[in-house]
Amino acid sequence: MLNFSFTEEQDYFRKMLKEFAKEELLPQYTKWDREGVTPRHLWKKLGELGVNGLRIPAEFGGSGADCVTTGIAAEEIGRGDFNLTYAVMLNALIGEIITKHATEELRQEWLPRIASGERIVGIAITEPSAGTDAGGIKTTAFHKGSVYVLNGEKSGISVATAGDAFIIFAKTDTNLGNRGISAFIVPRDLPGVECTGYEDMGNIPIGRGSIYLNDVEVPEENLIGLENQGFAQVMNGFDLSRLLIGLQCVGAAFQSLDETIEHVKVRQSFGKPLAVYQGVSFPIVTHYTHLEMVKWQAYRGLWLRDHGLQHSKESASVKWLGPKYSQEAIHECLLLNGHYAYTKEMPLEQRLRDVIGLEIGDGTAQANQMVIAKDIIGKEFRSY
Ligand SMILES: Cc1cc2nc3c(=O)[nH]c(=O)nc-3n(C[C@H](O)[C@H](O)[C@H](O)COP(=O)(O)OP(=O)(O)OC[C@H]3O[C@@H](n4cnc5c(N)ncnc54)[C@H](O)[C@@H]3O)c2cc1C
């Protein structure tokens, strides 16, 4: 049976978040960008609304919701405040990783605080010399007594300036390549951890930056999953985050289209509303169509994940085209709103800057095309 409808509960959740986004997020979206702050109180508010704990089991303070429901949160929060969707995506990804692979003590320590929004946790893979080629990281973690000693530099990390802890990937066996990588939960206040922020083009409230690890002694219990298997175990989580990122971007782009449709119905040129000119309506239709197609591919991917079916190539296609089509739609909306949209009085210029960030973060277009090629052409023809 093919069924594209959401459940009554999912529809209710969407309606609640849509109203929240419109009333409480949208009016302040540009404020956090201008002030350069991470609005921690809004992460807590998302905790109260049950958004942070969607992929965390009820026994650890979450709701254990399915992936499709998590996608609804990504899309609707994206309409109100694109940067706050990092909470949806990071908490879903990290909630799943800790639930599936961490010890019971780590679950009890971190999951309820992530679900409530009291703690912000980031994920750190990228390094100055290893981005797309994530297996090429150089950070090391050597077992010494009851601790692992971490040394290295992580770069480009979301919430570097605001995070209370990070899931850090490091080589535990330098002879094993990708298989020699392990994941650790590293609290920011451990001696030897230093975080610095970047002056980014967009996503300002996310506080992206570098994390320096200088002889950081991490308790061995903080290892997530098996030693040397961290990469393989945790990579599956990115099939979820990529689908959510697609919906975050699409949410921001749909909001821009809605605002632009209202504008072109009212604004006149040559004695008629802009909307009557096909030079105006067709671009809107083109972007609407692109966004709808990505949106449904994203929900399909989430549905496949909920049913335990393969969805890596679907996820990669959404991560590739979601930010791209959204960025193109927002750009066009900016142009259709004329010169005022080029000012900081309107949110469009910020949405454009914000969405472009996720054309890179969590894998570029090429990185995702490699995933699809591996699947449809074959592993034996991959270049890496
Ligand atoms: C907004 C944002 C948020 C981020 N958040 C995080 C985070 O929370 N945690 C984290 O670990 N990282 C994060 N990153 C880093 C991000 O994951 C990396 O920037 C990304 O994986 C690309 O790596 P790179 O920048 O080193 O580029 P490179 O790997 O150097 O790639 C440069 C260019 O070359 C292309 N390229 C590379 N290899 C190939 C190839 N084989 N074939 C064709 N083209 C290729 C790439 O597609 C890209 O266009 C974030 C980045 C941004 C912008």
TrEMBL record:
Q: Which cofactor does it need?
A: FAD
Domain (Acyl-CoA dehydrogenase/oxidase C-terminal): give its ranges: 228-376
Q: Cite a single GO MF annotation.
A: oxidoreductase activity
Keyword Nucleotide-binding in the entry? The reply is no
Q: Keywords assigned by UniProt?
A: FAD, Flavoprotein, Oxidoreductase
Q: What class of enzyme is it?
A: oxidoreductase
Keyword Flavoprotein carried by entry:
yes
All copies of domain Acyl-CoA oxidase/dehydrogenase middle, residue ranges: 123-216
User: Family assignment?
Assistant: Belongs to the acyl-CoA dehydrogenase family.
**What is the name listed in the Swiss-Prot or TrEMBL entry for this protein?**
Cyclohexanecarboxyl-CoA dehydrogenase
| Species the sequence originates in | Cytobacillus purgationiresistens
